[in-house]
């Protein structure tokens, strides 16, 4: 299976958890050294991991990632956890900030999901878990400075619904998780004062459970995750 954003935070915890559950996991993110470290921890724990440095917003890089994945046989699952958050007041949100945020969080998920979907169609089965955010959920309280981030996460939730609709006839299920505050570098940089109610391991544990459950009836769902405390 493939986990994006696997160099740290939720993606790294998910990669470790799915590997501990027996999957061979392909680790994708930009920082090759950090990916090597995560792969080392997984291997030391007896698991299988292959790091493939990838910028998910780069279509050619995503094509290279999934070419490597094809060499390992059937693709059972994809977890899209790659993401960026650059806070800025709306009036000061530059086109470059907007483009990068949408490019990684939404287009990156689209490119990875499309590549995985094509591989899974041929196999007649597959599972996709996308990480959105409570910031992308209608009627949750919004934090100022996150216009681009919020829009990208609304998009990921919509993308997941679209994949679920078209995936049904191919045996492909897709669900979205929308966590609140999780104790990661992203949160610590964005809001050092916020006390997170979730750990990366909490999210990873749920993903492992979802990947091991009958998902078809829930395909397209977005699951909000509030504090675990
Ligand atoms: N932490 C929270 O409170 C929270 C809440 C709700 C949702 N989320 C979502 O959860 C996901 C994981 O975030 P996190 O909290 O674990 O943050 P994090 O610790 O900052 O990790 C982000 C991951 O995304 C990767 N990434 C960033 N840009 C990338 C790119 N262009 N191509 C490939 N990988 C890229 C990073 O690796 P490289 O830098 O090595 O590329 C890193 O592995 C994100 O989608 C985030 O929006 C987080």
Say how many strands there are. 7
Which structural category fits the helices and strands?
A: alpha/beta
User: Which small molecules are bound?
Assistant: NADP nicotinamide-adenine-dinucleotide phosphate
What's the name of the CATH homologous superfamily of the domain at 58-167 and 182-225? NAD(P)-binding Rossmann-like Domain
What is the number of helices?
7
CATH topology of the domain at 58-167 and 182-225: Rossmann fold
Strand percentage lies at 15-25%
CATH architecture of the domain at 58-167 and 182-225: 3-Layer(aba) Sandwich
Terminal residue distance: 30 Å
Spatial strand arrangement across the major sheet: 3-2-1-4-5-6-7
Mean pLDDT: 97
CATH class of the domain at 58-167 and 182-225: Alpha Beta
* Weakly predicted, low-confidence segments: none
Element string (H = helix, E = strand): EHEHEHEHEHEHHE
Quaternary organization: single chain
Choose one word for the global shape.
Answer: globular
Q: How would you sum up the major sheet?
A: 7 strands, parallel
């Amino acid at each position: 299976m493939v986990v994006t954003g696997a160099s740290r935070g939720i993606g790294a915890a998910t990669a470790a958890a799915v590997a501990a559950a027996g999957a061979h996991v392909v680790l994708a993110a930009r920082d090759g050294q950090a990916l090597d470290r995560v792969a080392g921890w997984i291997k030391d724990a007896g698991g299988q991991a292959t790091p493939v440095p990838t910028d998910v917003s780069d279509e050619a890089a995503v094509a290279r990632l999934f070419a490597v994945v094809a060499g390992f046989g059937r693709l059972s699952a994809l977890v899209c956890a790659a993401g960026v958050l650059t806070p800025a007041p709306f009036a000061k949100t530059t086109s470059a900030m907007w483009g990068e945020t949408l490019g990684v969080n939404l287009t990156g998920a689209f490119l990875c999901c499309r590549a995985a979907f094509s591989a899974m169609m041929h196999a007649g089965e597959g599972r996709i878990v996308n990480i959105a955010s409570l910031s992308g959920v209608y009627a949750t309280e919004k934090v100022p400075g996150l216009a681009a981030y919020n829009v990208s996460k609304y998009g990921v939730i919509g993308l997941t619904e679209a994949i679920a609709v078209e995936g049904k006839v191919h045996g492909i299920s897709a669900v979205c998780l929308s966590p609140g505050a999780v104790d990661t570098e992203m949160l610590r940089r964005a809001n050092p004062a916020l006390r997170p109610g979730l750990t990366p391991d909490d999210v990873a544990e749920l993903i492992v459970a979802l990947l091991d459950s009958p998902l078809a009836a829930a395909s397209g769902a977005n699951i909000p995750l509030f504090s675990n405390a």
